[in-house]
Design brief:
Elements lengths: L11 H14 L5 H10 L7 E4 L6 E5 L5 H10 L10 H12 E6 L2 E2 L13 H6 L5 H10 L2 H15 L18
Antiparallel strand pairs: 1-2, 2-3, 3-4
Helix pairs in contact: 3-4, 4-6, 4-7
Amino acid sequence: MSNNDLYSEVSPETKEVKQQARAKAAGEPSILEKLSATIAAKVKREDVYIEVPERKGVKLRISPNITQSQVKGWRKQAGEDSRQGMDGTKFACFVIGHTTDGILFNDEEVHDEDGYALNFASPSVLKMTDTTRPIPEAVRAFFGLDPHVEAAAVAILDASGFGDTIEAMDPTKESSTN
């Protein structure tokens, strides 16, 4: 029997077990431990910034960490199950209102008198929009045009991953990144 791996009677699975044993003896984490650590880590998307059209210098700081149950609740609140059907602009207001964690003006985050970042429920925002309810009134007044409200909500949902495509990989083809 030669030292050439092509003629070896040791299966790839046996080689993997031996490699894991060597790694464990060297004090390195096993591939199982690495996978476990990766899966245990919390998945959180970074904040994104949405420019408000027609409001020069105004941006929203958005947390795109949205769950399917949140989307379902917002759709229901927007009238999805009603006789009239869902109001798309109202749904968009829920998406924007519930994901906005801050408002920026000329790239500086704006805080209220108590030092808290502004959002649509902030008394300052309700006052400047001359509204009493954050959603949908303050959001609509803040943007000024309904198409911009809907476009912002689509951008937020895309940033949250609802627009992502996941492609199946062919295991018989090598990755182009190798």
